[in-house]
């Protein structure tokens, strides 16, 4: 970790801010699967650079018709950070069920999915 990774941003370290943003993204629910994007493994990265938050994420399918719904949810979930949010759609590596967290698997099982 470099010094800039731990430099205070608005009174908190970069690492703590990224953790807070990641936690906030747990409010973003995949509209098709009903599980948050973090536990589904759709979140690939969070970067904070000045007044910008860049979210690297993917979808379960590149043909997902609900991209705008997810974008709106991300912006709403991160509004409290008072920074411009940029979504960077990433397709490599492709998403797969292996990226789902244990919590995500539990949530999917409760919804009736066999994972």
TrEMBL record:
It comes from Murinocardiopsis flavida. Residues 19-83 form the MIP18 family-like domain. It comes from the Bacteria. PANTHER family: FE-S PROTEIN MATURATION AUXILIARY FACTOR YITW. This is Metal-sulfur cluster biosynthetic enzyme. Pfam families: FeS_assembly_P.
């Amino acid at each position: 970790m470099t010094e800039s990774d731990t430099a205070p941003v608005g009174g908190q370290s970069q690492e703590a801010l990224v953790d807070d943003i990641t936690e906030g993204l747990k409010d973003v629910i995949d509209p098709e699967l009903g599980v948050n994007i973090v536990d589904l493994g759709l979140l690939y990265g969070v970067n904070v650079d000045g007044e910008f938050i860049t979210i690297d994420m993917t979808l379960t399918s590149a043909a997902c018709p609900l991209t705008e719904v997810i974008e709106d949810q991300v912006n709403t979930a991160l509004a409290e950070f008072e920074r411009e949010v940029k979504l960077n759609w990433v397709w490599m590596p492709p998403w797969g069920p292996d990226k789902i967290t244990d919590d995500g698997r539990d949530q999917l099982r409760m919804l009736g999915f066999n994972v």
